[in-house]
Design a protein that fits this description.
Elements lengths: L3 E4 L7 H9 L2 E4 L13 E6 L2 E6 L21 H14 L10 E15 L2 E16 L7 E11 L2 E10 L7 H13 L9 E9 L7 E14 L5 E13 L2 E17 L19 E9 L4 E4 L3 E14 L5 E15 L2 E12 L7 E13 L12 E13 L2 E8 L6 H10 L2 H4 L3 H24 L4 E6 L12 E8 L4 E7 L8 E8 L4 E7 L5 E7 L4
Parallel strand pairs: 1-2, 12-13, 12-14
Antiparallel strand pairs: 3-4, 5-6, 6-7, 7-8, 8-9, 9-10, 10-11, 11-12, 13-15, 14-15, 15-16, 16-17, 17-18, 18-19, 19-20, 21-22, 22-23, 23-24, 24-25, 25-26
């Protein structure tokens, strides 16, 4: 007796749907009945850390209340990338997820089978025009895929395969400002990315192939799913193996075109998953960035250089190894903005917390100690504070020094770590207000940097949290790297009734020396060298 099952089509069917298919001899899709709106035909829910989330495929249903399921058309294709991003962000750690691909385009294939059922021999060809691939480890898709491969006696050989990785265009006012700077530098919005794939695949076991592929690319744009890492550069990778697949290679970013935007979070151990008997993927990727890279998040805005290696086994997070030197930049410490003098980070793949050393300086307006007993407003003096941190990220050693003998190490720790108003200004409301203002500015700055085409966008207050109201304005700093060696920037104070701009041009002569020139608000030129010496 034949077992038959009849069921309507569903979007992302539940597990029992496939169990039913496996349990019967013949399965029939019942698509000759009326399409039901707000049903499971075109939508479903997935679990996320924030709760259930709907994924809905838009269809042309307006005024078509009696159309059948097979007559219903999908309305557009924009939903596909959105659904893929949602699934990637919430399920990329799930078992077997790394085996899922999303392919679109004009794919054509011709396959001939010969031999016995237990030992099939496959011959034919595969071609693609204007293809598009979504990969779980990339936020951006690979587009314009064009190529052809032949299959001869179970051996697939790539004759030619090319593609592109276009960088998303920025939108809005901030994005337009970034595009303006790009046009000044002659960069425009041209997509010069190019990827080429060659090599072979052993298709003797069709659903368990062996890989021997090579990929090279120039001006390749790459972004992780949450854009924690974003880069443009030249790539060279190999994909080799069967039961264990090794992805090895090198990515050389263009100068200043590698951006680390991940937030610095607390310590957490590496969790290496146990092999489940399936295919194990191992990554080993070398990234040298001696031409400079950028670290941009809510706390740090700095230029770095060095070399790191990314390794990963299975679905574990990437581990980092290497040495990074801090060239220049700023970071926020509890609401205070520090200029980096020097620093280095040593990344150890065996643990999450790296060894680091940072020396930075800030200027804070503090009242003179002699004014504490005065009944009038305190007289402020500009105090330079040098902060030195070293050790491991989770337990750093902290040293604070200042150019004023009036404040001890304990005083400075109290000011920076606790923000104690009694140290500087008797009015605690003033201190709290400045602290909230800094948090708002930092959040605004972080949101702006997500869409900006600039290399630098910072919103700065004129002093510390403890500066008295009315004594400092808000400064906006914009900058763009026009070439690997040339940087231009402008700083303005929009709170003033008259125009006050400061222009800066920096030219990097070599890895240790740069020439900087600036034009201050008074129209005076300043030129100086910056020399960095390693020993």
């Amino acid at each position: 007796m034949k077992k038959v099952a009849i069921l309507q089509s569903n979007y992302i069917p539940w597990k029992g749907y496939f169990g039913m298919i496996a349990a019967v001899d013949e399965f029939i899709l019942y698509d000759d009945m009326q399409y039901t709106r707000r049903d499971w035909r075109n939508r479903n829910q997935i679990k996320t850390p924030q709760g259930l989330n709907w994924l809905t495929v838009p269809v042309k249903a307006k005024g078509k209340y009696y159309q059948k399921i097979r007559e219903t058309e999908i309305d557009g294709a924009d939903w596909q990338a959105s659904h893929w991003r949602t699934l990637t962000q919430n399920y990329r750690r799930a078992p077997y997820f790394d085996e899922i691909d999303s392919l679109q385009g004009d794919y054509r294939m011709e396959l001939a089978l010969s031999g016995s059922f237990g030992r099939l021999i496959r011959d034919g060809w595969v071609g693609v025009q204007d293809g598009r691939a979504e990969l779980f480890m990339m936020e951006n898709p690979i587009t314009s895929i064009t190529g052809r491969a032949v299959i001869e006696a179970n051996q697939l050989r790539v004759l030619n395969m090319t593609g592109k990785t276009p960088k998303p265009s920025t939108t809005g006012v901030i994005g337009q400002v970034g595009a303006f700077f790009s046009r000044i530098g002659g960069q425009g919005n041209r997509d010069e990315s190019h990827i080429e794939v060659s090599g072979t695949m052993d298709m003797t076991e069709f659903f368990h192939p062996g890989f021997n592929l090579q990929m090279t690319g120039s001006k390749v744009y790459f972004a992780t799913p949450l854009r924690e890492i974003e880069a443009v550069g030249n790539a060279s990778f190999s994909v080799v193996g069967k039961d264990t697949i090794h992805i090895d290679g090198q990515f050389i970013p263009d100068p200043g075109a590698l951006v680390f935007a991940a937030e610095i979070i607390g310590p957490r151990p590496y969790d290496v998953p146990e092999p489940d008997g399936g295919v194990l993927i191992m990554h080993n990727i070398n990234i040298p960035f001696y031409g400079g890279a950028l670290v941009k998040n809510s706390e740090v805005d700095a230029e770095v250089e060095g070399e790191i290696t990314l390794t990963a086994t299975g679905s574990e997070d990437f581990r980092f190894a290497g040495n990074v030197e801090l060239v220049q930049g700023t970071f926020d410490y509890n609401g205070y903005n520090f200029d980096i003098i020097e620093g280095s980070v040593l990344l150890d793949p065996s643990e999450f917390n790296p060894q680091f050393y940072i020396r930075a300086v800030t200027e804070v307006e503090l009242p003179a100690r002699t004014d504490f007993n005065s009944t009038g407003p305190p007289e402020l003096e500009l105090t330079e504070i040098t902060l030195t941190m070293s050790g491991k990220l989770d337990e750093p050693n902290l040293l604070l020094e200042s150019n004023s003998t009036a404040y001890t190490q304990s005083d400075l720790l109290q000011l920076l770590a606790l923000g104690d108003a009694s140290l500087a200004i008797p009015d605690a409301v003033v201190t709290a207000g400045r602290s909230v203002s800094n948090l708002i500015l930092r959040e605004l700055q972080r949101d702006a940097q997500k869409t900006v085409g600039l290399d630098r966008l910072r919103i700065l207050t004129g002093g510390s949290r403890t500066t008295l109201p009315g004594q400092s304005g808000i400064r906006v700093s914009l900058g763009k790297r026009l070439s690997p060696r040339l940087y231009v920037g402008i700083q303005a104070d929009p709170t003033l009734s008259f125009n006050q701009y400061q222009y800066r041009v920096a030219y990097r002569l070599n890895r240790t020396m740069s020439l900087e020139g600036s034009l201050d608000p008074n129209g005076l030129y300043q030129i100086h060298y910056r020399i960095k010496y390693r020993y």
